[in-house]
Specification:
27 strands, Cation diffusion facilitator CzcD-associated flavoprotein CzcO, FAD/NAD(P)-binding domain, 2 domains, FAD/NAD-bd_sf, monooxygenase activity, monooxygenase, NADP
Amino acid sequence: MPEHFDVLIVGAGLSGIGAAWRLRQRRPGTTYAILEARAAMGGTWDLFRYPGVRSDSDMFTLGYPFRPWRGDRSMAAGDAILRYIRDTADEGGITPHIRFGTRVTAASWADSRWTVTTGNGTFTCDFLYACAGYYDYAHGYQPDFPGLDDFRGTLVHPQFWPAGLDYAGKRVVVIGSGATAVTLVPAMAPEAAHVTMLQRSPTHVLVRPGRDVVATALRRLPPRVASKLVRAKNILVAQGFYRLSRRRPATAAAVVRRLALTRLNDPAYLDEHFTPTYGVWDQRLCAVPDGDLFTAIRDGSASVVTARIDRFVPEGIRLTGGRVLPADVVVSATGLSLLPIGGIELTVDGEKVDPATRVAYRGVMLSGVPNLAYCIGYTNASWTLRADLSHRYVCRLLSHMDRHGYATATPQERPGPRRPLLDLTSGYVQRALDLFPQQGDRDPWTVKQSYLRDVLLTPRADVRRDMAFGPKPAPVREETRR
């Protein structure tokens, strides 16, 4: 017989550990397990091993509200975040509940329960919670550059960074201009002969302090009090700047530029390489702590080239204008591939479920799919802010079902216009829009990118609205079994 749990959580990363903590805190006695495909917890922070890997959100909001971040860096290094996740799991008694090396491939709903198929056996559960994020861990995005076979150097993708890669004294070209690229360039520059960031078009890059002066000043207060104050400050600043970007994009762009000029006082360089044609927050904003990218450019250890690639040649990369960038190592920081619901093949009562044909219910569940939740973060704020709201909502829904003797909860879509779930123009988002659920035009079928709104409404949301509940099946009589 398959092992059965009240709740199965898919993924032991930042979201999965947070979900388990909330489940233990708010529903003691609920049986659960976390199914993790990899051999270690941490998710993104265990997968990415490239030089300088760090958060692109401040840790006081990316960290868990129930276990305040106490590090001294606002944008922390990947290994520090990984330790934080592991310590949280250990402190919460969660680690023994993780089944490592257990990749979920399919989940089938029938007879008021999920049957979950993995590479390490089959499980059943009453409720399935997918906390695997939306990255494809097995495949990064890699364009098919002409002439790759001619290149005599080393080509690497940040998602699969080879251990022991030697780039000391070598010429490095980083293709890309997103968060990964702006992290790699200043991290590799001190050892490399020179690092060139080759971008097709400019990206908005925001200079942020590496340490939060307010957090430092509040260290004398009890940790939870200080954490709440710093979180509130950072949330208000971030959400305020996002609103400014939406309503007055020119003003927001001027703020970003002014901060960049404090680190690289070269207006012409900024005009050429850091002045995009799109508005701030049309794509996810890249943040550089203490302006380290601009520092590397200023001291000459790094530079930026804005041009299109013609093809790879033996000695490097030839641009469309004919110029050749010499390279010993090329890092293809060209983006990620997205994968909805952890790539799990879903079936409900024998019918295959295509997430792209479904509508997101409160940004947590799928229309027409019973007892399934998924966790997805904000595009304009720290992932954990929305994730924790989702965890708390799932706990409320489960408690409501218990109180009323319900076995199933299925969101029932209201007909109306649909639009994409994710609202960014970034290439990695646009390439995957047709794979993801959509959203409607009214609550509870819209997914707002506003934590201030959600933190007020989600904890009070009516779990009954547009939800069809089903009773627990009657117990089978002994005579029927015979």
